[in-house]
Amino acid sequence: MLKEILGMFETSLEPLIALLEQHRAHGCSTGIKFEAHKLGSAAAQMGAMRLSKACRAISRYFDSGEFRTAPAGLDALVDDVMTETVRVQRKLHQLLG
What we know:
The protein is mainly alpha-helical. The protein has one domain (2-96): Up-down Bundle (Four Helix Bundle (Hemerythrin (Met), subunit A)). It is 88% helix and 0% strand. The protein contains five helices and no strands. The chain has helices at residues 2-25, 29-46, 49-63, 66-69, 73-96.
């Protein structure tokens, strides 16, 4: 049963990351915040705390209003989420392999 749950989480990562990248490419800050929130919540439920923390950093970025004064900072935060997602995917692949 645990493998099934982890497998569902692993399967859900690709569409979430694709949407996050799509929103970034189109400059849709609302979409980025929404997808980061979904991904961060799912990651926290699965114990992927570094990924969850990276997603929460995006939420804090928007909540603080920093996006108005430092819009370039968002790319670095999204890159952090992507890096952590790859790390989680690799770990899941090892566990489920």
